[in-house]
Amino acid sequence: MPADSGTVSVSDPRSRAKIHTELGALYFQAGNPAAALDHLATALEIDSGFHQANSVRGLVYASLREHAKAEADFARALSRAPNDPEVNNNYGWFLCETGKERQSIAYFDRALRDPLYETPDRAYTNAGACLLRIGDLDQAQTYLLQAVRISRNGAVQARIGLAQVFYLRGNLDESRHYLSDALRMMEPPTAEALWLAVRVERKLGNKAAEGGFASQLRSRYPTSNEYQEFLKGNFE
Q1: Membrane spanning segments where (predicted)?
Q2: What is the distance between the alpha carbons of residues 45 and 111, in angstroms, rounded to a whole number?
């Protein structure tokens, strides 16, 4: 009886490359870039055309500030799969992180044009964050609101981004609304979120809430940039 042609064995090169790429991504997320790079190199040795491995390795190199290597990996991934939404999202984030925020938006938009993209909320969130960095509050708000609308996991980062947008607009009640939602979903809360909460409550005149968030910032993140800004009194 012939073998089932729909079954993929682990001896299949593409399948093995995919496994190593997934392991590389997991190690990267766990804060172990060396192990991540080992698995990604193995993936590309097995299947040099597996563009997802190049894309993930680009993110790892970017995190290590090896920007030339990251750019080379992203270029290879895009040359093999110019419309892959995950590749475009990853490259867009790399551009944003390297001071090319406006240029990054085209890649997020390209990712979002794929109707089969499984996590479009990521691209909306990333685009919104990049636009927020350059002060384009209108467009940032549009992207971040869409991320919140479609996300299936709470869109914590998008909610923090919206809290920042509304804080900068002076709409403190809306800022607090989105930030409170985000804080309820986070354990522990990030230094970024706590520092924003301190400033929102300070502007609203809620001394007790301000003090509570400041205490958390001090106890959880005493060496963070956010806590140093608090100590300097740089509330704006």
Answers
A1: none
A2: 27
